[in-house]
């Protein structure tokens, strides 16, 4: 293989063999090409639930050396197994939403536990990566953002569509471990478990919240970033406590390095109420009564001028990460 593409990154893939006496975790290294597809070489085409199931099919088949996986809006995707002969023809095409993955076995394992670690191992393109969970052989497909803020790498840990604000995964505080589609990252209904949040936090220094990332990316409007040492969402339990933000912006009202008030308890999700004149950040002009920002939405306490809650289709996105 001599694929001369800049978009080469490493990832680890695994298979688990069960035997009567013990379990062996067999791992392989792969090169993942996001938004690429190898044309005209598949010897077998199947439908699998997720990229992990597709890599299992490839690893289980001795003739398979790589595969294309088509990420679709559904959880099912086309999985095309490719052999060495086809692979050597090297006809890679750009195709959005696809992933081309070359399997290569190796003992020299490098297993990223967060997107920041994936960056440190050479990952540069934003997209889906296999990230190790709490145990050796547990891998999850996760979304990594390396491009919205130069110098930072972010792992998406939760995302909620505003239209899903009645759903318990959006209401349940970070203090509780609630999962939603934790194997299939998406913008509307996604939340990883608390144990996995801790794993990712271990190699992260900061967290951030973005509003409608798929549409706006990061332009620092309706955005916040804070260091875990100043506010750790997984542990935070307080009512209107002033916590230092790196930066916070609500509807254009912003400050850098100031404190803002935060609320979370074992019943209520982490929220900043922008009508409350607390801490250095204070009240945001034009706030409605109990206006909730960055989560903790209920029926009438939201503002359509805030991007996270401007329409039923707006999304609020939570990330853990750090400087590269
Ligand atoms: C931050 O505040 C300044 C002045 O108060 C404003 O001009 C700017 O547009 C705000 N930035 C964002 C991204 O909203």
Automatic annotation (TrEMBL):
Keywords: Signal. Residues 1-22 form the signal peptide. Coiled coil: none annotated. Residues 25-104 form the Apple domain. InterPro entries: Fibrinogen-like_C, Fibrinogen_a/b/g_C_1, Pan_app. Pfam families: PAN_1. This is Apple domain-containing protein.
């Amino acid at each position: 293989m001599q694929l001369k593409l800049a978009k080469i990154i490493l990832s680890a893939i695994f298979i688990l063999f069960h035997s009567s006496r013990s379990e062996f975790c067999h791992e392989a290294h792969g090169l993942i090409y996001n938004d690429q597809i190898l044309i005209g070489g598949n010897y077998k085409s199947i439908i699998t639930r997720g990229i992990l199931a597709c890599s299992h099919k490839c690893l289980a088949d001795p003739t398979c050396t790589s595969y294309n996986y088509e990420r679709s809006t559904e959880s099912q995707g086309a999985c095309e197994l490719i052999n060495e002969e086809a692979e050597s023809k090297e006809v890679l095409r750009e195709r959005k939403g696809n992933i081309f993955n070359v399997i290569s076995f190796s003992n020299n394992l490098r297993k990223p536990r967060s997107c920041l670690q994936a960056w440190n191992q050479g990952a540069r393109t934003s997209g889906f990566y296999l990230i190790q969970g709490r145990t050796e052989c547990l891998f999850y497909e996760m979304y990594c953002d390396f491009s919205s803020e130069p110098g930072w790498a972010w792992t998406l840990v939760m995302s909620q569509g505003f239209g899903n604000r009645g759903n318990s995964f959006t209401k349940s505080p970070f203090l509780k471990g609630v999962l939603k589609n934790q194997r299939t990252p998406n913008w509307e209904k996604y939340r990883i478990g608390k144990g996995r949040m801790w794993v990712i936090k271990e190699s992260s220094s900061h967290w951030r919240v973005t509003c409608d990332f798929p549409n706006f990316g990061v332009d620092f409007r309706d955005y916040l970033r804070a260091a875990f040492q100043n506010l750790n969402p997984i542990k935070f339990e307080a009512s209107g406590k002033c916590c230092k933000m790196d930066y916070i912006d609500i509807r254009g009202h912003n400050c850098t390095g100031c404190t803002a008030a935060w609320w979370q308890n074992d019943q209520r999700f982490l929220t900043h109420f922008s009508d409350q004149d607390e801490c250095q950040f204070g009240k945001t002009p034009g706030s409605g009564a109990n206006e909730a920002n960055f989560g903790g939405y209920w029926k009438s306490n939201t503002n359509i001028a805030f991007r996270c809650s401007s329409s039923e289709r707006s999304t609020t996105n939570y990330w853990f990460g750090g400087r590269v």
